[in-house]
């Protein structure tokens, strides 16, 4: 006599934590609101706080790295045809990483950065093990992404022991090349599926060239001449590379969002070339074009795709997602105007900077409302 048993219903936490991107994307939305609101208060009131730590470190590691760490924990096993990374690996990464952020921003900078650096180093070890035992363990992008995660931990450890400003180095030696490596693979792949065309093949050494150029800019910090040389070379290489992808076609919004985001990369690099050539202090115009235009636009695009795809929904950009994308572009343009007014010594730069902060806050609040129930499994909590 067979006895039928009803499968045990998963708890809210089991549903919420069963995919790494759900944990990290939720944290990204929360941290983005905290960091921008804190940054705005420092500028507007003002209050006594380390703006570089809050805005620079907070944005890079609290928002950007948080989101892309969750993304990589999800996609590297897929890139390599490997075993999915288990919860006993990524849940400690998530928990310790958030502890490191809290300690760094609110308690002790050095102890907190040591936490964050250690978690990133452990993440690189997990990625290395995943790749090593995978069917496709020579997958080019996964190896480079793991190397860049390892580089980020070295940058933070160096910051702790040497006491340098990590912002410039983190962006050029880690964030921008990492997002480029993801974008140059994912965007053509998405277009290939939609257009029913073969995926364009690039030589394996192409990523080494681009990563070397990004590193060249990062390691040239303090030398306008070398920044000018490397940014000029990177701009030419990017224009040639992106033009060959043939991604500027009439496609659904979920695709052209990514194409526009990718296009901000050469624009931001060219802005850096102009800044270094004329030795202009522009209130970090090029870095904000790259961070907001390139990285955040792709974050909205990639993040929305991952959330929709992994929840079994149709992968398309609804009106809210399109509005979020347009808002991101408005934020970029607002921040560009802020720098231009600053260069022209006009006080309006302050108002435009505050406006960009407020728009960013609205952007992530609305993104959280739109996708919050999906990534947090809030519906399961109500049942």
What is the gist of this entry?
The protein is mostly helical and 383 residues long. The chain has helices at residues 12-16, 20-44, 51-80, 87-107, 109-132, 140-162, 167-195, 206-219, 224-245, 253-278, 285-310, 319-343, 348-376, 378-382.
Describe this structure in words.
- The relative contact order is 0.09.
- The model has no long low-confidence stretch (mean pLDDT 86).
- The protein is mainly alpha-helical.
- Helix 3 (51-80) crosses helix 11, helix 5 (109-132) packs antiparallel against helix 6 and helix 10 packs antiparallel against helix 11 (285-310).
- The protein is globular and about 65 Å long.
- The protein folds into 2 domains: 14-165, no CATH class; 176-375, no CATH class.
- It has 14 helices and no strands.
Name some characteristics of this structure.
0% strand, 2 domains, 383 residues, mainly alpha
């Amino acid at each position: 006599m067979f006895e039928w048993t009803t499968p045990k219903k998963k708890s809210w936490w089991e549903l919420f934590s069963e995919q790494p991107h759900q944990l990290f994307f939720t944290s990204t939305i929360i941290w983005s609101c905290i960091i921008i609101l804190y940054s705005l208060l420092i500028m507007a009131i003002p209050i006594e706080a380390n703006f570089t730590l809050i805005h620079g470190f907070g944005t890079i590691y609290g928002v950007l790295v948080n989101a892309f760490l969750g993304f990589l924990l999800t996609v590297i096993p897929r890139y390599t045809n490997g075993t999915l990374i288990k919860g006993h690996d990524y849940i400690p990464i998530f928990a310790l990483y958030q502890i490191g952020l809290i300690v760094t921003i609110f308690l002790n900078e050095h102890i907190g950065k040591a936490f964050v650096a250690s978690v990133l180093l452990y993440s690189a070890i997990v990625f290395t093990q995943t790749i090593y035992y995978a069917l496709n363990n020579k997958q080019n992008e996964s190896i480079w992404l793991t190397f860049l995660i390892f580089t980020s931990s070295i940058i933070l450890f160096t910051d702790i022991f040497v006491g340098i400003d990590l912002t410039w180095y983190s962006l050029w030696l880690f964030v921008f090349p990492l997002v480029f490596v993801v974008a140059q693979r994912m965007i053509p792949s998405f277009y290939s599926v939609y257009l029913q065309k073969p995926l364009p093949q690039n030589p394996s050494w192409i990523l080494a060239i681009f990563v070397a150029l990004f590193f060249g800019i990062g390691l040239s910090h303090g030398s306008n001449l070398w920044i000018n040389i490397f940014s000029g070379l990177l701009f030419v290489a990017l224009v040639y590379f992106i033009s060959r992808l043939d991604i500027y076609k009439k496609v659904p919004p979920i695709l052209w969002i990514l194409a526009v985001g990718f296009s901000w990369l050469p624009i931001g690099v060219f802005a850096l070339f102009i800044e270094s050539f004329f030795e202009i202090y522009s209130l970090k115009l090029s870095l904000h074009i790259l961070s907001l235009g390139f990285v955040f636009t792709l974050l909205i695009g990639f993040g929305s795709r991952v959330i929709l795809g992994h929840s079994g929904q149709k992968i398309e950009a609804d009106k809210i997602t399109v509005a979020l994308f347009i808002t991101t572009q408005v934020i970029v343009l607002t921040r560009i105007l802020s720098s231009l007014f600053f260069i022209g010594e006009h006080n309006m730069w302050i108002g435009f900077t505050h406006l960009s902060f407020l728009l960013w806050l609205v952007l992530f609040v609305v993104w959280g409302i739109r996708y919050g129930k999906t990534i947090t499994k809030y519906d399961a909590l109500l049942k």
